[in-house]
């Protein structure tokens, strides 16, 4: 199969280049970044270069090696589990759960199945490629490919020049994440980035924007009003030849026109509503219309920005 080739040079990262054309070629190849590597690419395209100030590798002096994600044992008493999750959700915004009763063999099968899909022949995977999410399945590279200044690159080629997934928050209620042993996820905590070491039998859980603003329970709406934290996280470009496999499951409300606003129980004269009313459909539309970066969409709904 012929693969669209993207050529570039790394001698001058500031040189002029046609960003739209590079994005279009990458998208139209329908093989994602794996296809570029398989085609014999030796340097990454210019569109994947990130500026030095966005380097995912913080200076050693700013790193705190003692920082780690809390681990919640679901076999503990209910009160203990509730207290631990509440504390993690209101401070770091991420935690790992163990003893969740999902058999290890099922988790391993999920990881191997996803890996097997990406190792299918290009001609097979190309049949699934597309950005239209209305069909229930979408398979493409970079959710913000046509909007971002720099695209993401997850493969092992020149990892020092790029980022696997830019820092962002999730536009959902909760994210439950299953990953293999290849590390790369980092979670921002104050000014540090926590290197996440996944528990082999665990799942990673993080608070999404909607839960920080609004906790969704079918037709009912509850607002945490910043009690729980949706924090920025990112993924480093993978320097290993072993692929990193990541399977997120996003939990949120249905795309309805129901209005979401602060729950009266968490609003007071001392702590007024932090966010204005919004709908899930409007929030998601705004999220996907912008570049994936930080909390820009979430901040747009703050009362101070009305």
What's the CATH topology label? Jelly Rolls
Beta-strand content: 15-25%
Name of the CATH homologous superfamily: B-lactam Antibiotic, Isopenicillin N Synthase, Chain
CATH architecture: Sandwich
Name some characteristics of this structure.
306 residues; alpha+beta; Jelly Rolls; five-stranded mixed sheet; four-stranded antiparallel sheet; 8 helices; 23% helix; globular; disordered N terminus; metal ion binding; metal-binding; oxidoreductase
Question: If you had to describe this structure to a student in words, what would you say it looks like?
Answer:
There is one protein chain. The chain is an alpha+beta fold. It has a single domain (19-51, 68-305), classed as B-lactam Antibiotic, Isopenicillin N Synthase, Chain (Jelly Rolls). The protein is built from 8 helices and 11 strands. The protein has helices at residues 19-28, 32-38, 78-91, 104-118, 122-126, 209-213, 280-288, 296-299, and strands at residues 71-73, 94-98, 165-168, 174-179, 185-189, 192-195, 203-207, 215-217, 220-222, 233-235, 246-251. A 5-stranded mixed β-sheet has the order 1-2-7-4-11. Strands 3-10-5-6 form a 4-stranded antiparallel β-sheet, with no helix packed on it. It has a two-stranded antiparallel ribbon with strand order 8-9. A hairpin with a 2-residue loop joins strand 5 (185-189) and strand 6.
């Amino acid at each position: 199969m012929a693969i669209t080739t993207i050529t570039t040079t790394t001698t001058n990262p500031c040189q002029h280049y046609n960003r739209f054309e590079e994005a279009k070629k990458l998208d139209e190849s329908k093989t994602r970044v794996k296809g570029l590597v398989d085609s014999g690419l030796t340097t990454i395209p210019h569109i994947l270069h990130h500026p030095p100030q966005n380097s995912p590798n913080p200076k050693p002096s700013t790193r705190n090696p003692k920082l780690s994600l809390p681990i919640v044992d679901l076999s503990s008493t209910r009160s203990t589990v509730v207290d631990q999750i509440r504390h993690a959700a209101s401070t770091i915004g991420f935690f790992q759960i163990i003893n969740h009763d999902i058999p290890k063999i099922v988790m391993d099968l999920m990881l191997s199945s996803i890996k097997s899909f990406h190792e299918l022949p290009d001609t097979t995977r190309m049949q699934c490629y597309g950005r239209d999410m209305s069909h229930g399945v979408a398979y493409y590279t970079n959710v913000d490919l046509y909007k971002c200044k720099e695209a993401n690159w997850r493969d092992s080629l020149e990892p020092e020049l790029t980022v696997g997934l830019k820092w962002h928050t999730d536009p959902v209620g909760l994210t439950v994440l299953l990953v293999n042993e290849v590390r790369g996820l980092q979670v921002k905590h104050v000014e540090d980035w926590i290197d996440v070491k996944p528990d082999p039998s665990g799942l990673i859980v993080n608070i999404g924007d909607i839960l920080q603003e609004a906790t969704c329970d079918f037709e009912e709406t509850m607002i945490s009003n910043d009690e729980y934290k949706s924090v920025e996280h990112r993924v480093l470009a993978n320097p290993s030849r072993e692929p990193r496999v990541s399977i997120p499951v996003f939990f949120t409300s249905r795309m309805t026109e129901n209005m979401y606003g602060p729950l009266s129980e968490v609003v007071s004269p001392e702590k007024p509503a932090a966010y204005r009313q919004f709908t899930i459909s409007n929030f998601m539309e705004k999220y996907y219309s912008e570049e994936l970066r930080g909390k820009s969409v979430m901040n747009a709904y703050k009362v101070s920005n009305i």
